[in-house]
Amino acid sequence: MPPPEKTFYCIFLGPPGSGKGTQAKKIIDIHHVFHLSTGDLLREMAATGTELGKKVKGIMDKGELVSNDVMFAILEKKLLSPECKHGVIFDGFPRNIAQAQELDKMMTKLQKKLSCVIEFKVPDENLIGRITGRLIHEPSGRTYHIKNNPPKVPMKDDVTGEPLIQRPDDNVKVLEERLKVYHSQTKPLIEFYSNPAHKGLLKVVIASKPLDQVFKDVEDILKSLP
Ligand code: AP5
Q1: What's 165's DSSP letter?
Q2: Which of ligand 1's atoms lies nearest the C-alpha of 64?
């Protein structure tokens, strides 16, 4: 594959169901940067069935955060891999201040710079319907929605025809915990990325708009990067 026209390292920051994964999948079709979803990496780890995998699954099923140590180990290995050398969309990382500080250190070590942090802004009340209606094609991570973005054939992936599933943590009870964690631990990152050390990085998209409009707004931000 030829090198991409544009290299960027961009964080997608927002509550569960705000559209980070959906938009990241569309963006990588155009820009060929790597979609680094820590949720997907952890789900792969959980599926291995090892002791660590079982522990990770238990934490995710409750909607809590996996420990920073586990996250740093996974992330460093991934960031050093060749697939990340032309740029990355960080989806679901960082999730707290300690992770953001560690990411700053890793980027310095790699002699790379963050290009932008895009906040996906959506009121909490919009998220229940999105999360409980979400369908996933597990092998690729492609997402659909029963009403807003249905597959062409019910419960089948458009590309492979394979079955779609619902994530075990996509229910109202676990969503409440995920939102609590988002507001207490992840939302403070908005202030972190507004401080002088990260001047100009934070951008906002109104992610309650229709999917195509959000995509256009994200693309406009990425196009404006140097
Ligand atoms: P993760 O997999 O990252 O989940 P999340 O952050 O809760 O985010 P989601 O994947 O639920 O939402 P999304 O914003 O990607 O929404 P999507 O685009 O699919 O994390 C899962 C768990 O892993 C965590 O709870 C934690 O335990 C652990 N974890 C992960 N990272 C960690 C870290 N760094 N540290 C510690 N633990 C970590 O959209 C949702 C639905 O809405 C879809 O059906 C879509 O079709 C629909 N939709 C999207 N946009 C629109 C729109 N504009 N209009 C209408 N519908 C829309």
Answers
A1: B
A2: 27
The phi and psi torsions of 61 (rounded to 5 degrees) equal -65, -20
* One-letter amino acid for residue 27 of the chain: I
Contact 148 CB / ligand 1 (< 6 Å): yes
Q: Is 167 a catalytic residue?
A: yes
pTM of the predicted structure, to 2 decimals: 0.95
pLDDT at 61: 95
- Classify 8-123+180-223 by CATH class: alpha beta
Residue 45: helix, strand or coil by DSSP? helix
Give pLDDT tens digits for 201-222: 999 999 999 999 999 999 999 9
Give how far Cα 215 sits from Cα of 23, 84, 88, Å. 6, 22, 17
Nearest CA among 98, 122, 161 for reference residue 22 = 122
Provide the angle, in degrees to the nearest 10, between the axes of the packed helices 51-62 and 38-47.
130
Residue 209 CA to residue 215 CA, distance in Å, equals 10
- Measured in degrees and rounded to the nearest 5, phi and psi for residue 121 equal -95, 120
Residues of the chain with pLDDT under 70: 1-4
Q: Ligand 1 centroid to 19 CA: how many Å?
A: 7
Virtual torsion, Cα 146, 149, 150, 151, nearest 10 deg:
-140
Task: Note the pLDDT tens digit of each residue in 124-137.
Answer: 999 999 999 999 99
CA distance to 13, 130, 216, 222, per residue, from 6 (Å) = 21, 31, 17, 9
